[in-house]
Structure of DUF1236 domain-containing protein:
Amino acid sequence: MKNVILASCAILAASFATGASAQEGTASGAAGGAVTGAIVGGPVGAAVGGIAGAALGTAIDPPPQEVVTYVQEQPVPATPVVVEHQIEVGKPLPETVVLTPVPEHNNYSYAVVNEHRVIVDPQTRTVVQVIQ
């Protein structure tokens, strides 16, 4: 019975793998989290692991190379933006940081913060990638 539930949860989580790359990250995170959760905690662990994995899957999905290249080629603003806390992938930027949209890629914006170029999800302000 446990194997049937485990397989069902993994198939259900993997079935979300359609559409845009953000959805693919969510699905792969959900599937991995569900399988890991099921191994550790059975059916309840699968549900919790799937939710946690989905959240992490979207937070760490790297942007397409053309987005990274575009951000790298943009001039550095004359006025530097400095924030008190360390900029980390998966953490939101403060509301005071102005985001610049990436043309033709509505899912990404960028900013130069603490002398680092940062690619951000504009809807959540979550850092997707820090370019050194």
